[in-house]
Amino acid sequence: MENQNTTPQEKTQKVWGLKVHKRVHFIGMRKFSFLFSALILLAGIALYFVKGGFKMGIDFQGGTRVEVNINAANVNIDSIRQLFMKDNFDSSVNTVGDPTKQHYLITVSDLTEKTVIAPTNITMILEQKFGSNTIELLGSEEIGPKVAENTGQRLITLLLFVSLLILLFVALRFNFLYGAGAVLALFHDIAIMAAFALFLDIPIDSTIIAAFLTILGYSINDTIVVFDRVRESHKLNPEEDYEMVMDRSITVTLSRTLVTSLTTLFVAISITIWGGRVLSNFGLMLCIGIVSGTYSSIFVASPISFMLRNAMHKKKPSEKKAK
């Protein structure tokens, strides 16, 4: 007989106009979801060793970034890249705006001397190739190795500190088991984003760290919505099977989760396409993080919390018997 406390809205839900039964077996699919996540993370770890680590931006490695116009004939991006292809240089060259305008962003780091290359040295190398008075320096940025090292340490500390605050917040609002599930899901999202950054050869700089922090906040919001519904449903039906409560709660919030994620994803896609050189990688990381965050709030955070709760409940009877 069906529990009288079950509301009509929980019996049948509409997700984008489609009627969905009150229970989709999300928790029952945890072995497949964990395997899927593990495969992506293992691929990321393998790629890390194959590529020798992440490609670091000058924010964490130190170096010089210049923006130049080259007023010469027969200039192409490959010819510029060849100028800085030296064993002790880590460099990247990208076009800015219309490729026909010969407007370039050049980033160079000296890996052996651990010193900052002056912007004038870069323009001199370009002038030797394309002729004197052909290079117009539009802007430059220099970051020393020590400053870059300190910046990296501060940002890693910030990520850990934010994760701890999220754990405490969720633990106080719900309980520690929910908090543990939420934080593990957040680490899952950051790891997925890092794996794709490796695969897409995206340099890790301050804008990518900003994307990580943005997704931490976005993903935990999705997770809290699900957990809040689980708590409410469990209060209404305390004797009901907890797996059924979680499955139904995820189904009830599914429409809201998907609509919110898609609208946010459209904004992130817009940033990726039209954000220019500074924001395109940031937008792309947001796209990956939004998809991963939506997935993890359903298939990672909730199953982990469920498994931890089961483990705690199995432990309590054995403790009583021992006494």
Describe the structure in your own words.
- It is a single chain.
- This protein is 66% helix and 12% strand.
- With 323 residues, the chain is an alpha+beta fold.
- The chain folds into two domains: 221 residues, Up-down Bundle (Multidrug efflux transporter AcrB transmembrane fold), CATH 1.20.1640.10; 81 residues, Alpha-Beta Plaits (2-Layer Sandwich).
- The protein has a four-stranded antiparallel sheet. The protein has a two-stranded antiparallel sheet with strand order 1-2.
- The longest helix is centred in the C-terminal third of the chain and has 33 residues.
- The protein is elongated and about 80 Å long.
What attributes does this structure have?
323 residues; alpha+beta; Multidrug efflux transporter AcrB transmembrane fold; 4-stranded antiparallel beta sheet; two-stranded antiparallel ribbon; 12% strand; disordered N terminus
Brief rundown of the structure:
The chain has 323 residues and is of the alpha+beta class. The protein has helices at residues 8-11, 30-51, 58-61, 77-83, 119-130, 145-173, 176-199, 206-236, 242-274, 276-299, 301-322; strands at residues 12-15, 18-21, 63-70, 89-95, 103-110, 135-143. It has two domains: 9-54 and 148-322, Multidrug efflux transporter AcrB transmembrane fold, CATH 1.20.1640; 63-143, 2-Layer Sandwich (Alpha-Beta Plaits), CATH 3.30.70.100.
Layout: helices, strands, pairs:
Layout (H helix, E strand, L loop, with lengths): L7 H4 E4 L2 E4 L8 H22 L6 H4 L1 E8 L6 H7 L5 E7 L7 E8 L8 H12 L4 E9 L1 H29 L2 H24 L6 H31 L5 H33 L1 H24 L1 H22 L1
Antiparallel strand pairs: 1-2, 3-5, 3-6, 4-5
Helix pairs in contact: 2-7, 6-7, 6-8, 7-8, 7-10, 7-11, 8-9, 8-10, 9-10
